[in-house]
Q: What sequence folds into this?
């Protein structure tokens, strides 16, 4: 059965369920997680969990959607949209890198890869609410910069994907493979500044 993305619901019990599910999924993965454990941790009945989410897939998808939306909203509020695009991208790069290196992002990525054959919907929704949402957000930032004469970009979607990939340099590979688990501000700044410099070398308007 294909999981359906649940209609977003709000309320104290929904928040409890999402927090409990988040912790269980991150600790146990998707296959080993069960609704009984989620209900117990959330301090609600299993019937309450099922009243909001018809199955485990729907619950996992909503956890991912909720987390990614929160991180995106936080980043957009923190970024100074009136600054020059180089400054905007520097701020964006720091948020992108820190999210990609977060325990949540790494564990969900591993879950989606592990379950890709049996539950491809998980990866699809993670992509839509993670990388694709980031891509769309960057495209909007690019468009504003293009209108201000700071960037020249023919294919904004490709440029957004390129910027995200630049933000994955070095640290993400080491992190997803478990080679390194923590990175200091200097390491993150190195990757962020390198990503922005490379991107601006390709797309900065001549007079920018």
A:
């Amino acid at each position: 059965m294909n999981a359906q993305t649940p209609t977003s619901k709000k309320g104290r019990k929904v928040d409890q369920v999402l927090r409990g599910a988040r912790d269980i999924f991150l600790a146990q993965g998707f296959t080993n997680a069960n609704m009984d454990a989620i209900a117990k941790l959330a301090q609600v009945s299993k019937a309450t969990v099922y009243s909001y989410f018809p199955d485990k897939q729907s619950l996992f998808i909503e956890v991912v959607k909720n987390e990614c939306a929160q991180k995106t909203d936080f980043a957009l509020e923190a970024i100074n949209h009136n600054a020059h695009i180089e400054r905007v991208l520097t701020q964006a790069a720091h948020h992108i890198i820190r999210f990609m290196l977060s325990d949540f992002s790494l564990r969900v990525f591993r879950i989606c890869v592990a379950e890709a054959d049996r539950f491809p919907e998980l990866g699809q929704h993670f992509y839509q609410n993670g990388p694709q949402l980031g891509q769309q957000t960057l495209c909007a930032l690019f468009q504003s910069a293009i209108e201000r004469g700071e960037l020249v970009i023919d294919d904004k979607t490709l440029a957004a994907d390129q910027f995200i990939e630049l933000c994955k340099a070095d640290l993400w590979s080491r992190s997803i493979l478990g080679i390194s688990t923590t990175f200091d501000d200097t390491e993150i700044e190195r990757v962020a500044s390198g990503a922005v410099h490379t991107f601006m070398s390709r797309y900065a308007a001549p007079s920018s």
